[in-house]
């Protein structure tokens, strides 16, 4: 009897899809949800080893005007859309190659948070294949359905006027320095 790999049993990795993504040799944009935040990473893979080039969580939206009283909604549909715009602008400003979006084991439903994220990427100027009919309506993207209203327009305007400054802190992973070894005499 053959036993499935541990990450497949835990529902974390679909190896058939992962192999296809690795064979394409294109960078991937990984989108994950946690209990509090959204996590987005730009990955490049070499020899099946992923290296993170850019990483960001939805807590970065607070710097662009997301209200602190609405921190509980940092994984809502408007937050997904705004994260798509913010991350897309970061990729475009760093002149990186357009990635393949990797949702992992999430079910991709139409008009969901995942599709809102992709719409944000498309609106930021990234070249991504998409189907317009799966995107959520503008009213839902702007947060019309939420109890805690957020200043969607001002947050979006702050992100769209994004410039590479010292204020704009995005985790860029750098290669660690190797330690020099000394020989004992």
Per-chain topology:
Elements: H1 6-9, H2 15-24, E1 28-33, E2 38-46, E3 49-57, H3 77-93, E4 100-102, H4 113-124, H5 138-141, H6 152-160, E5 171-172
Parallel strand pairs: 1-4
Antiparallel strand pairs: 1-2, 2-3, 3-5
Helix pairs in contact: 3-4, 3-6
Report on this structure.
It contains 6 helices and 5 strands; from the N terminus they run H-H-E-E-E-H-E-H-H-H-E. The chain has 185 residues and is α+β, with helices and mostly antiparallel strands. It has one domain (12-168): 2-Layer Sandwich (Nucleotidyltransferase, domain 5).
Summarize this structure as a short list of keywords or feature phrases.
Nucleotidyltransferase, domain 5, 16% strand, globular, 5-stranded mixed β-sheet, 5 strands, 185 residues, alpha+beta
How much is the radius of gyration in Å?
A: 19 Å
Structural class: alpha+beta
Overall outline: globular
CATH topology: Nucleotidyltransferase, domain 5
**How many beta-strand elements?**
5
The sequence of SSEs as H and E is HHEEEHEHHHE
Strand portion, in percent?
15-25%
| Number of separate domains | 1
Biggest β-sheet: strands ordered side by side in the sheet: 4-1-2-3-5
Q: From the coordinates shown, what is the CATH architecture? A: 2-Layer Sandwich
Biggest sheet descriptor: 5 strands, mixed
Low-confidence blocks of residues: 164-168
What share of residues is helical?
25-40%
**Average of the residue pLDDT scores:** 87
Taking the alpha carbons of the first and last residues, their distance comes to 57 Å
Tally of contiguous helical segments: 6
CATH class label: Alpha Beta
């Amino acid at each position: 009897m053959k036993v499935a790999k541990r990450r497949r049993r835990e529902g974390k990795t679909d190896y058939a899809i992962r192999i296809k993504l690795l064979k394409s040799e294109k960078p991937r944009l990984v989108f994950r949800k946690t209990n509090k935040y959204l996590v987005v990473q730009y990955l490049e893979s070499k020899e099946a080893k992923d290296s993170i080039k850019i990483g960001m969580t939805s807590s970065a939206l607070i710097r662009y005007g997301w209200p602190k009283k609405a921190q509980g909604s940092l994984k809502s549909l408007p937050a997904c859309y705004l994260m798509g715009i913010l991350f897309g602008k970061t990729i475009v400003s760093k002149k990186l190659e357009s990635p393949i979006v990797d949702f992992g084991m999430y079910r991709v439903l139409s008009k969901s948070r995942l599709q809102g994220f992709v719409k944000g990427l498309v609106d930021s100027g990234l070249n991504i294949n998409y189907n317009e009919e799966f995107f959520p309506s503008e009213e839902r993207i702007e947060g019309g359905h939420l109890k805690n209203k957020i200043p969607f327009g001002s947050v979006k305007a702050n992100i769209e006027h994004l410039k590479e400054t010292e204020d704009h802190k995005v985790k860029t992973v750098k290669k660690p320095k190797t330690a020099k070894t000394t020989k004992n005499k």
